[in-house]
Amino acid sequence: MSATTTIAQVNPRRRTAGRSVQITRLLPRPLLVVANVLLCLLVLGPVSYMVFASVNSDIAVAAGEYWPQDLRLENYLTVWRTIDLGAGLVNSLLICGAVAIVCAAVAVSIAWVLVRFTFVGRVTILRGLLGLQSVPGTLMLLPVFVMFSTLSAILRVPTIGTHWSVFVTYLTFALPFSTWVMVTYIRGLPRELEEAARMDGASNFRVLTRIVLPLSWPGIVVSAIFAFLQGWNDVLFASVMTNRESRTAAVALQIFGATQETGAVPLYGQMMAASLICAAPVVVLYLVFQRYLVGGLTAGGVK
Q: From the record, what ranges are coiled-coil (predicted)?
């Protein structure tokens, strides 16, 4: 009798759980599988073409051949001599890495002040951070160039073509978005932990470094990666603000692709190999910080 009662009590819960899963599922399972397969093909199609073209001959790629008849791995070795890819990668890693670190550190500090303290102009700053995201970066190219040129004439120091000018440019455009990400994340942190630390005599700096920072790692990683990617993928500002010594990897690829627009057969294999080499650091970055990205992107979605 008790067993029958237990089964009667358990089965409705199972039926309720199964019913809730069916309600929350947007598509039936067969259609969901088909949709996932189509999305994977849509993403992996261009990537597989780049991989196969990077180990194929230029004539075969120009003829439309997808699967290589013979592997030519020397494209990955020759490309380092064809273009100055090594220096471009070093410049990109230095500039974008510094932007990511500084942007994340400044963003979490500003966001904590905006969320936890009340002062005049606080709401205006929050609205300004959100409004700055609607300004196209293309419209800011000429003002930024004129500003650095004027600064160079006033201070009598070189600005255009230096690493720090590109660093300041990327930091300016990445900081508003990173700050807004951290504002959304810090809003979900419990205030009780900070209040308990203050009752123990902790200062604001100690609360920020000992309480807020350890709890905000997912949001910090998300803001840092987005700041890194904004500089890594940029061609427009880097092509104007850099010279031969400070040229980034994206500019090196753009110049290499422009030089192949001739009547002869372009170096398709080396172009694809260089593209995959430049994409490898970003892929590694995502794989290393994947678990932080999931937590940081979904933070603030459920309150």
A: none
Candidates 162, 130, 159; CA nearest to 146 is 159
Whose tokens are 């630390």? That residue is 197
Q: What global pTM score does this model have?
A: 0.81
CA distance 292 to 127: 27
DSSP string, 154-168: HHTS--TT-HHHHHH
Please give the Cα distance from 290 to 121 (Å, whole number).
36
Greatest CA separation for the chain:
93
For residue 215, the SS3 value is helix
The reported pLDDT for the residue numbered 263 is: 61
Helix H or strand E encompassing 243: none
Question: What token pair was written down for 13?
Answer: 């819960």
Chain position carrying tokens 């070093």: 90
Distance CA 185, CA 148 (A): 34
Report DSSP state, residue 242.
Answer: -
For tokens 């987005």, what's the residue? 226
- Six-digit token string for 90: 């070093």
Q: For residues 161 and 245, is the Cβ–Cβ distance under 8 A?
A: yes
Residue with tokens 């064809």: 82
Choose between 101 and 156: higher pLDDT: 101
Exposure class string for 1-31: b at 16+ Cβ within 10 A, else e: eeeeeeeeeeeeeeeeeeeeeeeeeeeeeee
Residues found in the chain: 303
Nearest to 61 by CA among 77, 51, 44: 51
